DNA sequence: AATTGATTGTCCATTAATGAACAACTAGAT
DNA sequence: ATCTAGTTGTTCATTAATGGACAATCAATT
């Protein structure tokens, strides 16, 4: 299905990464609309033509970042389930939970969206994505038929999002494994 | 004197930096002779041909790093004197002292040489370079003619080197400005 | 002794990034 | 109102890095 040559050249990945890092760094210093493309390529240490080869506006670059983060968020949430049949977070070991590693990985971006007022829309997007993921868990295993799936999905997804926010506000002083342990401890204290 | 086109293409600088970072990182994990070129380019995320375009052996890469560090060390030591006539460390303000920023800048490299037994020769090289720099200070200003210049140069250079070692052993928990303040405080407590 | 898997050094055609130039536009300072 | 310095979008020839191939070498396994 996918093309035989559907890998992406490393140079492209490196250039895009440099541009992404640069715009995130600049947005921590000043407002998005004040960040110029010349600023971005200057910090990214790239020729301006390289920017235009990949993007047209700053907005495209930002969209690309958001896409990447969401893709990685979904992958990180799903990764532990790859080789097992169950679909129950509480059954996972704490070191199998990868979502907080994802938050660490994109620490600069998350710091940005939590503080910034530009990307409040993305915060909702995050919540929706997590909720969808949790929904698939819930639909997979039918525990108590009296429980509203939407409600429990919302409950868990916002709980996870809340922990993410706490992690970010703390300045990332908690390790991913600690966060995962805490998540499990909290869940088990409810369910046992 | 220098060629009109004597700048270096950014791509070369980036590739070399990636190779340098990679070999330093690998040498923190295993012995130098066990680090393969494939290891280096794998971590540096570069094609193997790129390594061979710039270097022939691993040793060349290591030599290049050492050259760069020493060049930066000298520049960092001299920078404060650029626009002033005096040549007396004790006359500088603490925030003018740049040498500890240099150590921070090459933190990974310094951690490596302090621990590793491969690069003990480089430790001597560092001392000699610093001593030469201090010597120029001492020759510039003739304070007490009874004082042996070689001796005072050795004294100060090893003192600075000692502080660098202490900074590295501490895991870089002291800021550059703090280090500089301490250096000045120590000097002044002797001279006043 | 034969085999497997990895590294090494070298090659090449293709592609991405580069520096430099350009005219057009903008914002601030004089 | 003019001047200055900067950004923008685009173009182009040149250069660096790429992926992929190759035979040769080496170490550990069988």
Task: Provide the number of structural domains of chain A.
Answer: 2
Question: What's the assembly state of these chains?
Answer: homodimer
Taking the sheet with the most strands of chain A, its summary is:
none
Share in β-strands of chain A: under 5%
| Count of alpha/pi helices of chain A | 9
Pick out its properties.
Arc Repressor Mutant, subunit A; homodimer; 0% strand; Tetracycline Repressor, domain 2; disordered N terminus; mainly alpha; 9 helices
Q: Which secondary structure elements does this structure contain, and how are they paired or packed?
A:
2 copies of one chain form a homodimer.
Chain A: H1 10-29, H2 37-44, H3 48-54, H4 58-78, H5 99-105, H6 107-115, H7 120-140, H8 149-169, H9 176-191
Chain A binds a DNA duplex (30 and 30 nucleotides) through helix 1, helix 2 and helix 3.
Question: What would your notes on this structure say?
Answer:
- The structure is a homodimer.
- With about 190 residues, chain A is mainly α.
- Chain A has two domains: about 55 residues, Arc Repressor Mutant, subunit A (Orthogonal Bundle); about 130 residues, Orthogonal Bundle (Tetracycline Repressor, domain 2).
- Chain A is about 70% helix and about 0% strand.
- In chain A, helix 1 crosses helix 2 and helix 1 crosses helix 4.
- The structure holds a DNA duplex (30 and 30 nucleotides).
- Chains A, B: Keywords: DNA-binding, Repressor.
- Chains A, B: InterPro entries: Homeodomain-like_sf, HTH-type_Tx_Regulator, HTH_TetR, TetR_C_Firmicutes.
- Chains A, B: Pfam families: TetR_C_8, TetR_N.
- Chains A, B: One of its GO terms (molecular function) is DNA binding.
- Chains A, B: This is DNA-binding transcriptional regulator, AcrR family.
